[in-house]
């Protein structure tokens, strides 16, 4: 198989400057297209409703489509399709259904905003009963491993 560089060299050897100019223009166009990184395509799923769940069941029962194909067709992820088919979720509009309660709880968490950081725990005392000095404490007040001397030797009993 011939490489692009070999093709350019052959054109240069034959004195085909117009072909080289066209090739250079194509390379620059491709380079310009590649430099602009396109953002990843993000699919926003539809809100699960009892009607959508019934449509998923209908597609599952009447066609030989996979869960992934059904998910792509109706605009939800495959996990939602699996929940509808295997566990019968989202088939009724009951606000007391477990999935509706979980959704409402998640919405409330989002509305409340980020949590404040948890307070640091008090450090545990050492075996001799004295508190651990701050220099020996790690993140969160936990005790870090004691430093080991480089010339230390192991003793087997």
UniProtKB/TrEMBL annotation:
<feature type="region of interest" description="Disordered">
    <location>
        <begin position="89"/>
        <end position="157"/>
    </location>
</feature>
<protein>
    <submittedName>
        <fullName>RNA polymerase subunit sigma-70</fullName>
    </submittedName>
</protein>
């Amino acid at each position: 198989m011939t490489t692009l560089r070999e093709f350019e060299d052959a054109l240069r050897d034959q004195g085909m400057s117009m072909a080289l100019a066209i090739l250079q223009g194509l390379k620059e166009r491709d380079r310009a297209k590649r430099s602009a990184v396109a953002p990843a395509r993000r699919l926003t799923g539809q809100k699960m409703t009892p009607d959508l769940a019934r449509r998923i069941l209908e597609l599952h029962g009447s066609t030989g489509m996979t869960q992934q194909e059904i998910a792509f067709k109706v605009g939800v992820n495959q996990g939602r399709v699996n929940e509808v088919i295997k566990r019968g979720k989202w088939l009724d509009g009951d606000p007391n259904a477990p999935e509706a309660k979980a959704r409402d709880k998640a919405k409330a968490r989002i509305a409340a905003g980020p949590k404040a950081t948890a307070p640091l725990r008090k450090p545990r005392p050492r075996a001799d009963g004295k508190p651990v000095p701050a220099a020996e404490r790690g993140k969160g007040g936990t005790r870090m491993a004691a430093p080991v001397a480089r010339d230390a030797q192991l003793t087997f009993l």
